[in-house]
Write a structure and sequence with these properties.
heterodimer; A: alpha+beta; four-stranded mixed sheet; 4 strands; B: alpha/beta; Aspartate Aminotransferase, domain 1; four-stranded antiparallel sheet; globular
C-alpha cells in the first residue's frame, strides 16, 4: 500500500497542517489553556472568546506539533466558531467517539462534518492523543483548567 | 571471517514477522530493544518446560539444576565483562534498577551536602532522575558536562567540572539518542584523578563493543539483558568488590540474608546481598544464552559489520535534502537520529510504519539532549548486526516518499 492512499494522512489533513486556520493568539479572549503531549512534544495554546450568552464568537490556537495535532486544532477552530459552549462539548464527545471507533460515521447520527477525516486514526492508538490534544485543551479552557497534558 | 548475514538473520525468528498491513518488517528500533536469537528463546522455554523451580534453597533435582544454570549465567557475565570475581556480578531487573540501586545504596549512604555528582547532557533519564531523588535526601549537587554540536562530551569542560568535591561520575557509554561512543577509558582516568568513583551506563554500549571493566577501570557498570539480545526484565550491576562490600543492602527479603531474628539479621555475602527475593531465573538463564550467542559471533565481525552499516547509512541520509542528522560524533554506533524540514517525527514514524519500517520517534528519554539541539523530538533509526544495507536502501526510499507527502 502506498503512502498516498493512506486514509490517515488525507489531503485535507495535510492542507490544514500546511496552512492552519485561525493560527494566532486571540486578544482579548475570555478563555485560554495550554495543552501538552509529553510523548511527542506537541504543545499548543487554545484561545476562545465566549459571549455572555455562551456562544463561541471566536477561537484560535498557536503552537507546535505533528500534522495530526495541528490539522485537528485547525479544523476544530473552523468547526466550533458560532457554536454554543454546550454544542462544543457535544461535538468533542462525538469526535472522541469517532477516534476510538465507538461512533461509526456511516451509520450513527452525528454533526462532525469534515471532522470525519480523522476516522482512520483508531488503527493507530499511539496517535489518538495527537488528534485529541486541541479538543481537550479547548474543553480545559472552557472548564477553567490552565494546563492539559495528554498521556 | 566476515559475518554470514543470511545465517545470522535466520537465528532471529522475529525478523520474519510482518509489520503493519502484512508488510515485510524492517526493524530499526534496536536501541529500544533487540530481537532474541533462537537459543535465548529455547533456553528460556526449556527452563519453564523442564526446570521450573526456585533457586538456592531447594534440595531437589530441579532446583539444583536451575541454580547451577543461574549461577553459570553469572560466570558468563563475569567473563563477558572481565570482572575479577563472581561476587562482583549482581543480577537486577535492568539497567534502570541497577542505577537506582547505586543511587540509593551508594549515593544515599556516602553523599554529604555539597558533594558533587557529575553527569552529562546526553544521559538517559534513568541516569538523571535517580540522582535527583538522592539530591533531595542528601543535599548533594548535580553537575552536567556539556556536549558539542556533534553530540560529543566536551572533554575540557568535563575536566573543569571535576574537583575534590566530585564523589561520583555517572556517564553513558553509548548514547541512545545520538549514537555517540564516549571515550570511557580517558574519562575514567580523569575522574579517578580527583578521587571520584566512576559509573558506566552501558545499556547501549554492551551490545556495541567489548566492555572490559578492568581495562576501562570503571568502578561500576550497568546494563540490561534485553538490549543484548536477551530477555526483558533482567539486567546486571557490576561493582568492584570493595565498593559493593561497603554499601548497605538495597532491598531486604529472602536470599539476601544468612540469618534472621527479630533482634538481628545477618546479611548474606556478595553477590546475594543485593539479590533479595526470587530473581528472574529464566531471564538470567536467557541472558546467559544471549552472551553465548554474541561471543560465538565474535566482536571483530560484529564491529566491522556495524561500522559498515553506520558509514553506509550516514552517507545515504546526508544525501537527503532538508534532513538534519542529530548526533554526528566521530566515533558512533549505527544510531541515526534526524529531523526533517517539513515533517514532524511523529508523522514520519507513522508513515514509515505503514511501509513496515519500525523506528522510534520522540525524545528517547533524553529530553536534555533535545533541549541542547533546540528540537522537541527526533526520528531515530537504530541498527544492529542483523540489519542490512538493503534494508537501509528501502528505508531511504520510504523516507523520500514521506518527504513528498509533506512537500
Amino acid at each position: 500500500m502506498s503512502i498516498h492512499s493512506d486514509e490517515l494522512y488525507q489531503q485535507v489533513i495535510l492542507e490544514h497542517n500546511k496552512r492552519p486556520r485561525n493560527f494566532l493568539q486571540l486578544d482579548p479572549c475570555t478563555h485560554q489553556a495550554e495543552g501538552y503531549n509529553p510523548l511527542c512534544g506537541d504543545h499548543l495554546n487554545v484561545y476562545l472568546r465566549v459571549s455572555d450568552q455562551g456562544m463561541i464568537e471566536e477561537l484560535s490556537f498557536l503552537g507546535d506539533g505533528c500534522a495530526i495535532s495541528k490539522a485537528s486544532a485547525s479544523m476544530m477552530t473552523a468547526a466550533l466558531k458560532g457554536k454554543t459552549v454546550e454544542e462544543a462539548g457535544q461535538l468533542f464527545q462525538e469526535f472522541r467517539h469517532l477516534l476510538t471507533k465507538e461512533l461509526d460515521p456511516e451509520k450513527d447520527p452525528h454533526s462532525l462534518g469534515k471532522l470525519t477525516v480523522f476516522s482512520g486514526i483508531w488503527k493507530y492508538p499511539s496517535r489518538v492523543k495527537c488528534a485529541v490534544l486541541a479538543w481537550r485543551t479547548m474543553k480545559g479552557a472552557l472548564d477553567q483548567e490552565k494546563t492539559i497534558a495528554t498521556e | 571471517m566476515a559475518l554470514d548475514i543470511n545465517k545470522v538473520r535466520q537465528d532471529f525468528p522475529n525478523l520474519a514477522a510482518r509489520g503493519r498491513d502484512n508488510m515485510p518488517l524492517i526493524y530499526f528500533d534496536n536501541a529500544a530493544t533487540t530481537f532474541k536469537p533462537c537459543e535465548v528463546i529455547s533456553r528460556t522455554h526449556h527452563h519453564y518446560c523442564q526446570r521450573t523451580s526456585n533457586i538456592h534453597r531447594g534440595v531437589h533435582y530441579l532446583s539444583e539444576e536451575a541454580t547451577a544454570e543461574y549461577e553459570a549465567s553469572r560466570d558468563k557475565v563475569r567473563r563477558f565483562i572481565n570482572a575479577k570475581s563472581l561476587s562482583e556480578v549482581i543480577f537486577t531487573k535492568g539497567a534502570t534498577e541497577s542505577l537506582n540501586l547505586l543511587a540509593r545504596s551508594y549515593g544515599a549512604h556516602f553523599l554529604k551536602p555539597g558533594d558533587e555528582v557529575l553527569l552529562s547532557t546526553m544521559e538517559h533519564h534513568a541516569n538523571i532522575v535517580p540522582w535527583q531523588m538522592i539530591r533531595e535526601e542528601t543535599g548533594c549537587v548535580l553537575k552536567v558536562a556539556p556536549i558539542n554540536d556533534q553530540g560529543e562530551i566536551i572533554v575540557d569542560e568535563y575536566r573543569k567540572l571535576l574537583s575534590a568535591r566530585t564523589r561520583i561520575v555517572s556517564l553513558v557509554h553509548v548514547s541512545n539518542s545520538l549514537g555517540t561512543v564516549n571515550p570511557v577509558k580517558a574519562l575514567v582516568k580523569y575522574a579517578h584523578a580527583v578521587g571520584a568513583v566512576f559509573i558506566l551506563d552501558s545499556a547501549q554500549g554492551i551490545s556495541h563493543e567489548p566492555v572490559d571493566v578492568q581495562d576501562l577501570g570503571v568502578d561500576f557498570c550497568v546494563f540490561s539483558g534485553h538490549k543484548l539480545f536477551g530477555p526483558t526484565g533482567v539486567g546486571v550491576l557490576y561493582g568492584k568488590e570493595v565498593l559493593l562490600e561497603s554499601m548497605p543492602p538495597y532491598q531486604g527479603g529472602g536470599d539476601m540474608i544468612l540469618s534472621v531474628t527479630f533482634e538481628k539479621t545477618i546479611y548474606n555475602r556478595l553477590p546475594h546481598k543485593f539479590e533479595a527475593g526470587t530473581p528472574n531465573v529464566a531471564g538470567v538463564i536467557g541472558l546467559g544464552a544471549s552472551i553465548d550467542y554474541v561471543t560465538r559471533l565474535g566482536w571483530e565481525d560484529i564491529i566491522a559489520y556495524k561500522k559498515d552499516l553506520c558509514v553506509y547509512g550516514t552517507k545515504l541520509l546526508e544525501g537527503i535534502e532538508g534532513l538534519r542528522l542529530v548526533g554526528t560524533a566521530a566515533n558512533k554506533a549505527p544510531v541515526f537520529s534526524f529531523t526533517l524540514a517539513n515533517a514532524h517525527p511523529h508523522d514520519v514514524g507513522t508513515l514509515l510504519d505503514r511501509e513496515g519500517i519500525a523506528i522510534r520517534t520522540g525524545h528517547h528519554c533524553t529530553q536534555p539532549v533535545m533541549k541542547r539541539f533546540g528540537i522537541p523530538a527526533t526520528s531515530r533509526a537504530s541498527l544492529t548486526f542483523y540489519n542490512t544495507r538493503e534494508e537501509l536502501d528501502l528505508f531511504i526510499a520510504a523516507l523520500r516518499k514521506v518527504i513528498k507527502v509533506f512537500s
